[in-house]
């Protein structure tokens, strides 16, 4: 069976030569097997293996006996051990967790702290195939999405699970062949926890009455769903990069994200909840307690009139805006914007009849004055600094480029980008003042009204500032 575990670890890239590995060792069959396997892998990968045991302070003398066994085991195998004592009942009360959640969190903290002290690159856990099947069934019963149906992953960050491809029966058989004892946790056979009821009743019943290979089949399906989840994550990454922009408040606190409305309408409905979860998670900094109803409410906001608002978890607010939907965190404070001195920026509406000579010849060639076809413009034109979701039209076919990408391509220093003035029609940038204008609103022979924007040359404006002016539709 060692070869099976080794091949599984190799297939998932769990280890590199010279890794320092923290092994979570409870003393049960699974973790004892894990330690044995790691010591075999040590020969091939030149590993440094260290063990951590967490005593939860719940089972009294039984827990003390487990700790003593682990100490003896590690001493006999020449593995450095750190034993950590945690009052899990107290931790659960103080942090508002169930005992099961508190125990899991206590172990995570102990492993992470040990990894930091010993500069460990891997933390090895002893989850196996039966644990994975239990997790999938538990998630399904409680209600879950694609991610939860993918079960336990072989690797997640520093964490690796070399035994995930073998069953509990195979683990116990290996220890029996090597005549290695292990501890029995009596609480695993109690029905106090939901997971125990699945382990002790649901799965045995399904193996007896439905299919003896139910664990294998559940894990096989979970693997397919996990791969589908990873694909959806890549699609979400691409959509988020294309359709959203995140910025922080002027004091570094608070977050705002704008979702492009027209672009969102083109996103497949299957992908939309994943994109909206990503947006809310980035704005509030967490995804716990974000539920389907919140994504549904946010999606419906795209079909509401401009100005409509909804409240979301963690104090977030969402507002329908011209660009699409703007989501802000509870501590978001918008940067202050002041009206420009009219002597420095002038916006006026002209008609072709006001122009002397041929219209095309009269179009200003100076970098300080630009003309735009006013009737093509959809919203009010505002002179402002950048906002999330801003973009330029860059060719006659209507191809667009995110404003931030334009700044990067032009090698404009990041510290200057928030101070460059823009002539904006919603999120569409008509003119990056001092640099270039976008396409699509040029004055032609069919133009009926002209919007003229002039920057006062006497002010020696170089395109950088942080104030605004505007001209409203219907002017």
CATH topology of the largest domain: Rossmann fold
Shape: elongated
Task: Report the strand count.
Answer: 21
Rg over alpha carbons = 31 Å
Q: Under the CATH scheme, which class of the largest domain?
A: Alpha Beta
- The second-level CATH architecture of the largest domain is 3-Layer(aba) Sandwich
- Unreliable segments of 5+ consecutive residues: 459-475
Describe the 3D structure:
- By secondary structure, the chain is of the alpha+beta class.
- The chain has 3 domains: 2-229, HUPs (Rossmann fold); 249-328, Uridine Diphospho-n-acetylenolpyruvylglucosamine Reductase, domain 3, CATH 3.30.465; 345-471, no CATH class.
- It is 40% helix and 19% strand.
- It contains 16 helices and 21 strands.
- Strands 3-2-1-4-6-5 form a 6-stranded mixed beta sheet, sandwiched between helices. The chain has a 5-stranded antiparallel beta sheet with strand order 7-8-11-10-9.
- The protein is elongated, with a radius of gyration of 31 Å.
- Residues 459-475 have low confidence and may be disordered.
Please summarize what this structure is.
The chain has 475 residues and is α+β, with helices and mostly antiparallel strands. It folds into 3 domains: 2-229, 3-Layer(aba) Sandwich (Rossmann fold), CATH 3.40.50; 249-328, Uridine Diphospho-n-acetylenolpyruvylglucosamine Reductase, domain 3 (2-Layer Sandwich), CATH 3.30.465; 345-471, no CATH class. The chain has helices spanning 2-11, 29-45, 61-77, 88-95, 99-118, 129-142, 146-149, 168-177, 194-209, 214-243, 261-265, 272-284, 292-301, 359-362, 403-409, 414-417; strands at 20-24, 48-55, 81-85, 122-124, 155-156, 159-160, 244-248, 255-260, 309-311, 317-320, 324-328, 345-350, 369-373, 381-384, 391-393, 400-402, 422-425, 428-432, 436-437, 450-455, 469-471.
């Amino acid at each position: 069976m060692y070869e099976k575990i080794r091949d599984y670890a190799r297939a998932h890239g769990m280890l590199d030569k010279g890794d320092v590995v923290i092994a979570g060792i409870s003393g049960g069959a699974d973790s004892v097997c894990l330690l044995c396997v790691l010591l075999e892998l040590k020969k091939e990968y030149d590993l440094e293996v260290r063990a951590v045991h967490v005593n939860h302070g719940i089972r009294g003398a039984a827990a003390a006996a487990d700790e003593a066994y682990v100490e003896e085991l590690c001493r006999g195998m020449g593995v450095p051990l750190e034993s950590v004592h945690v009052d899990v009942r107290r931790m659960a009360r103080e942090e508002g967790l169930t005992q099961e959640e508190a125990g899991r969190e206590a172990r995570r903290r102990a492993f992470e702290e040990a990894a930091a002290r010993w500069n460990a690159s891997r933390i090895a856990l002893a989850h196996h195939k039966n644990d994975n099947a239990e997790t999938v069934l538990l998630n399904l019963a409680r209600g879950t999405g694609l991610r939860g149906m993918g079960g336990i992953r072989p690797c997640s960050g520093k964490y690796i699970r070399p035994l995930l491809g073998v069953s509990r029966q195979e683990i116990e058989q290996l220890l029996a062949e090597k005549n290695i004892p292990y501890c029995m946790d009596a609480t695993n056979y109690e029905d106090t926890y939901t997971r125990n009821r699945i382990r002790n009743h649901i799965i045995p019943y399904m193996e007896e009455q439905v299919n003896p290979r139910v664990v294998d089949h559940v894990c096989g399906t979970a693997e397919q769903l996990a791969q589908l989840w990873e694909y959806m994550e890549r699609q979400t990454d691409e959509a988020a990069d294309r359709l959203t922009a995140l910025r922080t408040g002027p004091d570094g606190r608070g977050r705002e994200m704008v979702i492009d409305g027209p672009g969102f309408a083109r996103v497949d409905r299957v992908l939309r909840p994943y994109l909206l979860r990503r947006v809310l998670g980035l704005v509030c900094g967490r995804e716990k307690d974000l539920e389907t109803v919140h994504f549904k409410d946010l999606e419906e906001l795209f079909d509401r009139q401009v100005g409509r608002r909804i409240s979301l978890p963690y104090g977030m607010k969402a507002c329908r805006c011209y660009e699409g939907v703007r989501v802000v965190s509870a501590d978001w404070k918008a940067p202050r914007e002041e009206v420009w001195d009219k002597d420095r920026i002038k916006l006026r509406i002209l008609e072709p009849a006001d122009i002397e000579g041929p219209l095309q010849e009269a179009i200003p060639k100076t970098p300080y004055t630009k003309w735009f076809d006013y009737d093509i413009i959809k919203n009010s034109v505002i002179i402002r600094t950048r906002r999330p979701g801003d973009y330029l039209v860059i060719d006659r076919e209507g191809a667009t480029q995110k404003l931030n990408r334009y700044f990067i391509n032009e090698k404009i220093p990041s510290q200057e980008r928030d101070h460059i003035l823009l002539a904006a029609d919603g999120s569409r940038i008509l003119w990056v003042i001092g640099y270039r204008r976008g396409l699509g609103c040029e004055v032609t022979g069919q133009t009926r009204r002209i919007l003229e924007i002039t920057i006062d040359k006497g002010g020696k404006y170089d395109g950088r500032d942080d104030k605004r002016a505007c001209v409203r539709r219907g002017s």
